[in-house]
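Step 1: inspect the first sequence and its tokens.
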Amino acid sequence: MKLEEKINKRIKEIEEDSRYQSGLEEPATIDINAPLAMIQLSLETELKTLKAVRAGLRKTAKQVASGYHRPVCPKCNRELHPETNGVGVLDLGGDGKPYELYDADLWKCPGCGIEVVGGFGQGPISVHYLADFEAQIKYYQKKNLLIKNTG
């Protein structure tokens, strides 16, 4: 399959994704005049993000349905509820520089409003030496869904 065919196929997949069909989110704008390698990188980054968000949504529902207990607020004695799926957590190294990026879930207490981030999955969605690392960080920043973990 030619690169151009792969790109067109990926664009179609993104357009058919339920997040975009529901109007919750707009797909990234792709500059069709950019070099093909840049377009491919942009599409691959978007695909990784979509997969991470989709996995996060399934994970939370699956865990609760299979008997995992929701976190409980010790102050209010109430179960926390999933507030936002697909929150980016950027782990900073000892030198304060970005090191790893995780996709996680934000939980909130309906009583006092305390928030906790959990559901990090099996590992990071990107790390500092990968080509898509900065683009992944920018994706979460653009959505105001990036939390920096200083350790």
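Step 2: inspect the second sequence and its tokens, then contrast the two.
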Amino acid sequence: MDIYRQVGDRLGEANTLAEFGNLHFAQGEYSQALDF
């Protein structure tokens, strides 16, 4: 994440955050998934 932010890669940052959300959702952690 930090590297994406340092180089200004907004798409890479967005994709990473979306994947974090998907992981939480898949584990049934729905409230945490909404944070992403």
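Step 3: confirm your contrast with the notes below.
The chain has a mean pLDDT of 93. The CA atoms of residues 14 and 20 lie 10 Å apart.
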